[in-house]
Amino acid sequence: MPEKLTLGLIGAGRIGRLHGEHLARRLPAADLLAVSDIFVDAAQRLAADFGLPHAYADHRRILDDPAIAAVVICSSTDTHAQMIIDAAEAGKHIFCEKPIHLDLAEIDRALAAVEKAGVKLQVGFNRRFDPNFRQAREIVASGGIGEPQIVRITSRDPAPPPIGYIQVSGGIFLDQTIHDFDMARFLLADEVEEIFAVGGVMVDPAIGEAGDIDTALITLRYRGGALGSIDNSRRAVYGYDQRVEVFGSEGVVTVANAKPDTAVHLNSTGEHAALPLFFFVERYTESYLAEMREFITCVREDRTPPVTGHDGRIPVVMGYAAKRSYDENRPVKLSDIE
Amino acid sequence: MPEKLTLGLIGAGRIGRLHGEHLARRLPAADLLAVSDIFVDAAQRLAADFGLPHAYADHRRILDDPAIAAVVICSSTDTHAQMIIDAAEAGKHIFCEKPIHLDLAEIDRALAAVEKAGVKLQVGFNRRFDPNFRQAREIVASGGIGEPQIVRITSRDPAPPPIGYIQVSGGIFLDQTIHDFDMARFLLADEVEEIFAVGGVMVDPAIGEAGDIDTALITLRYRGGALGSIDNSRRAVYGYDQRVEVFGSEGVVTVANAKPDTAVHLNSTGEHAALPLFFFVERYTESYLAEMREFITCVREDRTPPVTGHDGRIPVVMGYAAKRSYDENRPVKLSDIE
Amino acid sequence: MPEKLTLGLIGAGRIGRLHGEHLARRLPAADLLAVSDIFVDAAQRLAADFGLPHAYADHRRILDDPAIAAVVICSSTDTHAQMIIDAAEAGKHIFCEKPIHLDLAEIDRALAAVEKAGVKLQVGFNRRFDPNFRQAREIVASGGIGEPQIVRITSRDPAPPPIGYIQVSGGIFLDQTIHDFDMARFLLADEVEEIFAVGGVMVDPAIGEAGDIDTALITLRYRGGALGSIDNSRRAVYGYDQRVEVFGSEGVVTVANAKPDTAVHLNSTGEHAALPLFFFVERYTESYLAEMREFITCVREDRTPPVTGHDGRIPVVMGYAAKRSYDENRPVKLSDIE
Amino acid sequence: MPEKLTLGLIGAGRIGRLHGEHLARRLPAADLLAVSDIFVDAAQRLAADFGLPHAYADHRRILDDPAIAAVVICSSTDTHAQMIIDAAEAGKHIFCEKPIHLDLAEIDRALAAVEKAGVKLQVGFNRRFDPNFRQAREIVASGGIGEPQIVRITSRDPAPPPIGYIQVSGGIFLDQTIHDFDMARFLLADEVEEIFAVGGVMVDPAIGEAGDIDTALITLRYRGGALGSIDNSRRAVYGYDQRVEVFGSEGVVTVANAKPDTAVHLNSTGEHAALPLFFFVERYTESYLAEMREFITCVREDRTPPVTGHDGRIPVVMGYAAKRSYDENRPVKLSDIE
How do beta strands C148-156 and C241-248 pair? Predict the structure, then answer.
């Protein structure tokens, strides 16, 4: 295997810092050389905290650096596609946070650039690397439940994002459910053909005023015949609720929430235990680390990353299908979206 | 409170024997005087086993007996409506197994007869009396989860019934899902307005050849805005899978399967525990007893039974809505069925 | 198999009523013909409630009845041994509540009478018939944990009995721990050789003033080399705490408490679930039924009952060993008690 | 708060590498400047892996370095006490792995040196920092269970150490149980007065030939009146079994094992789930990190570390009391050991 992988980080926001810390401290095969952010002081702070040699305002400084072999794109969503194109043209391997873009034509432009450049691209659907979901997938893949027949995904956030974020998020299906669409594909290694979505504004009227919904229930029909169901809420007062179940001809596998501790307390009023880990930073830390480790390994070993550009594109199509289904109150085929 | 309630049992099949044993042995307020069955030796055997004074071939012998105040109808489904009419006209209070009938007009005839006679009618949706689901309902009713937003019901049988039964069952939605439709109404004390159903033949092709499906996923839209999801299978190899969840603005309540024992065994290959209780007789014994106790109390105390004729009718409407939705692959309003 | 087993019930107190109901209503192979109690109105009430032909003040009326083949002794503890002797001399098979007596010489007299008469005797260590503990025993017996090495028994009551009862109970080791001593023998099918007990008065000073303790921790050394630990409290505010664990060379089996329902409620303050079933009537109903069914079967099939007089005697020896160990703060051999 | 804490690491074995990685990568407040090991290439490898400026064969090079404020002692157990003395005399703050020494006089010499030098000393009883046990302690400390009455600790290793290690370990009570003795003190914040230990050779006869036992059951009597029970095995085939329970006048708190994932798989043979995390590196990673973070904070904020030299000494006394109790088959007071 070659030397350490040299990387540059584009974007020093919350998720950028998370990846930055992992690259700088917890992934010995990574050599993080630079960070850029249009807010240069954020980049500088990150560089200082994690001991990076360079901090830039302009991500081109990273793309122009011949010592850097790969980039990790954590800038704002609307810039992802162009960043991918720029990075591909600069010959860099790319890890890009999800989604690639909310516009399918933009995604296609980005994927074409990646293909033309022959660089590797991994999209940040980190939940595939969660040890709990991974174990479920392994049980399914190894035949432990026979032929998959019914998938159930519960995915509820502890609290909605700010209204300003919701306004530019593309809507719940493209912002929150998109992770579950990826999970639905991952668990069965099968494609969804048709989607039916219902939903409503139950958490906060302001979300409705912003043109979005905050609660949704989505039915999936897989190509292979299996059925799927996803439910979403922007607010579970008891914390981050992330569970899946796959039922099949020979059994079922169920993934429960992860908890901060195993202590159970009984007193005269009942039995009490901890709530689920609060949100994605707590619940998915290991998965962020694992996806990046896998990206680095794939680049170093010249293997195809486990979450491809294609894998990044399809959940966006699913999001549009869900949106149209919700708007028109009828099932919508993915093939109608393209 | 008056004396014991005198009862006659119509139908000495499996469910008839179950109710017969409870009435004869476990419900001190009941005085089971007679049983009838068109197979008179089944009636005689039941009478002998549980010490009943009378066994008849003709249920009219029960209806004509002035010493009998109430009847428990466990005959075949297609006879329920007429039995109700006959019993009502004879002035007997009525406990009737579900469904009242598969034909809505027949149901309406039966309910009209009950109303005219002024007798009490309770329909046998026993799962409402399961201590697990009852506790969930109590948490919801007491405001423990705030405003209900999402209902999830998983209801899978351990094995499909014989094809001969399936052929006359009315189809999965009227035979299996009907219990879940009742549960969906019970948990929220709210009505469903619209249903969307998908499904397929995944368990046994013979079920498809009989014109039915064996796997289904049903979306519910409640009048109050909540959303619901039911999944059904005719065969879960690990046993009877009966779980519900209600999520709301202030919390969630989840009901897990009941198990025969609490022993957990760890060895070098993993952690192992018992499968769920095998089927409805094991899982719902207590609920059959509790529903009958409640019926007897309501008659003796002149109160309205907890599962009325109206409660018996609506799940049939829901079954037809689900069937039409499945056939036409579109959401169907309950108001379109009437 | 012969006809139904005809029985008489001696003692119409709480446990007598429980057995009486089971014999009269839930055990078709039993024919309960009579009940006696020195408080004859209690006997009459029981006879009326469960439809028994005879109610007596004097238990000799039962013993003298040639139609009665077996007796169930539920009278006060100090009368058990003499009742056994009388019943044996009358040629009746005997089910006797635990303990046989608190005096070993009296026990030996009773067992000698049983042996001389050639009747069957089963002692009411009902917990062996609890489906949870039974499953643990079966896993141990089938080799699922290899060679047993460590046994842990937690046995805590929800509330102490009245002080008046404690004064005549023989002390915690002979009254409460006696069940756990039986369980310790049952789980391993091995004998205990040596006992070390510590304890104290932590629940109620009045228990101390009555010469007893209310909290205890007992170490067992088995003949086969395994070690055991029992902890007892007279008051667990969260209810009846009844758990066991057996650890061995190839694994471990753990039995958790049984609960009234499986509902789990999460809100902003935590995860909440039901407390264990409150006390022995709720937790052990099935085991009382199962032990009696087994007694009846053994008599009818002429087999040795599963809990013999010997099994009834040894836990009393263990109770004395524990008491001496506690008093002298040193390990005591069972062989020192005889 | 002052600058980062500068540290040197003494010992580059398994536990040294674990602390080294945490200090170098995961504790931003630490500045790890050097490592020493009598096997200098181990030190050099560690320095290279984690980017440390210096690697020495002689720990005196660290003690002599005025730029280093604190040392982390991970050398072999028999050197700990002298290392503490040397470090104290050099004016370094000290984190030392447990146990300080197996000889109480040596411990006292070391503690005297620490006191004379006025440096801080924290002993590595990391399990106090496990989030599960910590939560149990917090529930106890906050009065959630009222007055503590019974403590149960189950502590079983997945596999015994090599015989060569066992020969110099001081025996099971000083090597394995010592952690549980510390846990017993931590959970109640109370001292143990008397100990009774039983045990045997059940895992491997070679352990017996080495003069040790491999299975033990220890009774504790606390000064405040509570009772405790610890059970140990050198081999649980299902992995690392680490559970505690504290029962009191107002409730109970129970800590279950931690698991690698929450997936549960049901098929026709039963319900299956993951085994506990395999051994201390997996189970206690977070606790090793947390104890070191706490040490660094205490030094930087001039506070007394949470696990003092006194806390390091008492479990050794308890180990000797247990050993004597086992040898003489009688309860032994800690006051008899000094």
Answer: antiparallel
Pairs from A41-45 (Cβ < 8 Å, separation ≥ 24): A42/A12, A42/A13, A43/A12, A45/A12
pLDDT at C218 over 60: yes
Task: Tell me the residue range of the domain where C326 lies.
Answer: 128-283+315-336
Task: Please check whether residue D275 touches B, CB under 8 A.
Answer: yes
H helices within D158-204, ranges in order? 163-168, 172-175, 177-188
| Domain stops at, among B119, B153, B186 | B119
Say how far apart CA B140 and CA B185 lie, in whole Å. Answer: 12
Interface test with chain A among C257, C259, C266, by most A beta carbons within 10 Å: C266
* C207 and C148 share one domain: yes
Is some CB atom of chain D closer than 8 A to the CB atom of C143? no
In a domain, C273, yes or no: yes
Distance CA B152, CA B219 (A): 10
Cα C292 to chain center, whole Å? 12
The answer to whether D241 contacts chain C (CB < 8 Å) is: yes
CATH number at residue C14: 3.40.50.720
Give me the number of domains chain D comprises.
2
With respect to residue C28, please indicate whether it lies within any of the assigned structural domains. Answer: yes
User: Residues D181, D221: one domain?
Assistant: yes
Q: Return phi, psi of residue A316, to 5°.
A: -70, -45
C-alpha D48/C-alpha D38 separation (Å) is 17
C303 in any annotated domain: no
CA distance D121 to D312: 10
DSSP A82-128: HHHHHHHHTT-EEEEPSPS-SSHHHHHHHHHHHHHHT--EEE--GGG
Per-residue pLDDT at D2 exceeds 60: no
Phi-psi region of C250 (alpha: psi -120 to 50; beta: other; left: phi over 0): alpha
pLDDT per position as a tens digit, A192-228: 999 999 999 999 999 999 999 999 999 999 999 999 9
Nearest to D251 by CA among D153, D134, D139, D144: D144
> What DSSP letter does each residue of D233-248 carry, written as one string?
ES--TT--EEEEEEEE
C-alpha distances in angstroms, D117 versus A108, C82, D91, D124, D303? 69, 77, 6, 20, 16
Which member of D239, D270, D275 has the closest CB to residue B275?
Answer: D270
Looking at the complex, report in whole angstroms how far the Cα of residue B229 sits from the nearest Cα belonging to chain A: 8
Are residues D222 and D324 both part of a single domain? yes
Do B104 and B25 have their domain in common? yes
Alpha carbons C35 and C32: distance in angstroms, whole number = 8
Residue with tokens 């948990």, as numbered in its chain: B187
Angstroms from C14 CA to nearest CA on chain D: 28
pLDDT in tens, B71-108: 999 999 999 999 999 999 999 999 999 999 999 999 99
- Distance, in Å, from the CA atom of D23 to the CA atom of D9, rounded to the nearest integer, reads 9
Helix (H, G, I), strand (E, B) or coil at A235: coil
Same domain membership, residue A150 and residue A269: yes
Residue B208, domain CATH: 3.30.360.10
Same domain, D83 and D192: no
Residue A297 lies in a domain: no
One domain, residues B49 and B138: no
Across A25-34, average pLDDT: 96
Sequential DSSP letters for C70-94: EEEE-S-GGGHHHHHHHHHHTT-EE
What is the per-residue pLDDT across D272-288, written as a single tens digit (0 to 9) for each?
999 999 888 889 999 99
Give the residue from A63, A89, A119 where a domain finishes: A119
Write out chain A residues lying below 8 Å of B146, CB-based: 237
ipTM of the complex: 0.96
C179 and C323 in a common domain: yes
Please, which residues 169-228 of chain D have a Cβ atom closer than 8 Å to chain A? none
Question: How much is the pTM?
Answer: 0.96
